[in-house]
What we know:
InterPro entries: D-amino_acid_metab_enzyme, D-ser_dehydrat-like_dom, D-ser_dehydrat-like_sf, PLP-binding_barrel. By secondary structure, this protein is an alpha/beta fold.
Amino acid sequence: MTIDNDVVDALAAELLGPHIKSAPPAAWGHTVREYLTGTPQLTHWQTPLLTLDRAALDANRALMADWSSAGGVALAPHGKTTMAPQLWREQLRAGAWGITLATAWQAQLARSFGVGRILLANALVDPIGLAWVAEESARDENFEFYCWADSVATVELMDKILRDTAPGPRVRVLVELGGAHGRTGARTGAEALAVAHALVGSERLVLAGVGGYEGALAHDRTPAALTAVRDYLRELAALHRELGELYSGPAIVSAGGSAYPELVVEELAGLASDQLPTAPGSTTVVLRSGAYLVHDDGFYAGISPLSAPAADPGLRSAMHGWARVMSRPEPELALLDGGKRDFPFDEGLPTPQLVVGGSALPSGAHVSALNDQHTFLRLPGASFADLPVGSVVRLGLSHPCTAFDKWRLIPVIDSAETAHPRVVDLIRTYF
């Protein structure tokens, strides 16, 4: 699948300056390309800081590409996790079917970088965004765009907007199936079937498949949670089969976050061999995992079946936080210079991992809270001599989606496990 390499490569011409959080003043006024031609070191950067680990990124990307291919599913990574075209390109080069996104603006940004196939895992009822899709599809017949609808009212509104404002080809739409107490999505098979019939009768839309998000129905790996996810995926498969005679061409069946990908493969991969009445053998099962590339040391490390060391080699965290001790007001408390503006906290607080070039962290060290610009690092049994002011602590982080959105430019280091990490790339994000 395509992306415009020239546009992505042009990011290296961006000038560094004080608008780039924590960038070294010595780099200001230089382009990214110029900065990287030197021998930049992690120690040149200020704290707080978020970094990516090149070795882990490469290993995670290769692992997921091989795993999804072996499982018989296509992979459309959720691009909203990173909003980083450089990383999207790496995923597409590794064989990704397309890029998943969540809003019209995100899709427009991806398209500006030449992404040729976009799956919008959401309904699109914004008139401006919907008109843009129609215009872009008319401008480039090779551009593939898919979105969702979960009600007849949604279909009717989309159809009206397109008839009133934007000539062009019909927009491909997947029927979104939801679940009780979940997020969006038709709540029953009958409601989903009605949506499909409305799409078939639409002037400007076309029924292109079914989709949904099983991660909205569970948040752990208890037997009850796994049963709920399996039951939902089986309902999605049944809906697809029921719609077989309504499809006018190839169909998409899409599910999957990063928490239960193996269940998606187990329950849906077989649909790719289904013989549809209108387009035999043309079902594509699309997995939309987004967090796998970066992974984490928190929520996904605990729930993903592909995490190391449970899986071998397994996914491992490619992101770390770095923060400096700025105050030791009490023997068992250190205040670090990073906080909610710098590190994610919605799926678990950062976890202290090591002291850079110093002694080991005291046993039981943990983060108890974050303020906007402070991390409260508790040090049970410690003294003022432990972890002195100025020490740099590496932090494990949870949830890449809410880590990336705090950083405009993220340094990539060769490895977080080396004594003197070298900066080998800078990743531009768009949030």
